[in-house]
């Protein structure tokens, strides 16, 4: 595993590279938050890049909780560094099985967008290493379809379970 530099949540705003994705889905914010903040073992059901994951320890989860995820053929160890129930959480990537970045955080935001819809935001902020630059051509372009598909899948899953 490759160790990444520890950074705080403000790294999202000051990282050398930021990729920001946002969309609105027709599901209430509380329902979206419940799924996105849940253990990432359910993420493969809706996020195409994630094949497995989980939290270390038992709930309640929050700042300091450790997560592990396998995404895009890479294993990640993460620590939650910001948690605002129902609205936002941020996790720092502590280790990765490939040397993709020197430092990296991801932030998920949830906010109401009308009576029963939610604006979902995902920001990936990093100081990339050469492997990331080589392996992910035009990240904003290549990752946007993955995010859109994830949000369509999430909307479908949550709408079906609510109905």
Uncertain spans: none
Number of helices: 4
The Rg value, from CA coordinates, equals 15 Å
From the spread of the alpha carbons, the general shape counts as globular
Percent range for β-strand residues: 35-45%
CATH superfamily: START domain
Question: Looking at CATH, which topology would you report?
Answer: Alpha-D-Glucose-1,6-Bisphosphate, Chain A, domain 4
Largest sheet: 8 strands, antiparallel
Structural class: alpha+beta
Query: How many domains, as an integer?
Result: 1
CATH class: Alpha Beta
The total strand number stands at: 8
Q: What integer is the average pLDDT?
A: 92
Distance between the termini: 42 Å
Brief write-up:
The chain contains four helices and eight strands, in the order E-H-E-H-E-E-E-E-E-E-H-H. With 163 residues, it is an alpha+beta fold.
């Amino acid at each position: 595993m490759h160790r990444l530099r520890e950074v705080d949540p403000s790294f999202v705003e000051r990282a050398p590279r930021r990729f920001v994705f946002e969309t609105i889905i027709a599901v209430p914010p509380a329902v979206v938050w419940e799924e996105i903040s849940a253990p990432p073992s359910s993420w493969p059901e809706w996020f195409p890049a994630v094949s497995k994951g989980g939290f270390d320890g038992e709930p309640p989860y929050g700042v300091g909780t450790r997560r592990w995820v396998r995404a895009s053929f890479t294993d990640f160890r993460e620590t939650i560094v910001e948690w605002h129930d129902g609205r936002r959480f941020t996790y720092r990537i502590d280790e990765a099985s490939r040397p993709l970045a020197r430092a990296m955080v991801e932030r998920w935001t949830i906010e109401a967008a009308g009576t029963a819809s939610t604006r979902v935001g995902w920001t990936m902020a990093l100081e990339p290493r050469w492997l990331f630059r080589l392996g992910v051509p035009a990240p904003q372009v290549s990752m946007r379809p993955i995010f859109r598909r994830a949000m369509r899948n999430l909307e479908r899953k949550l709408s079906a379970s609510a109905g």
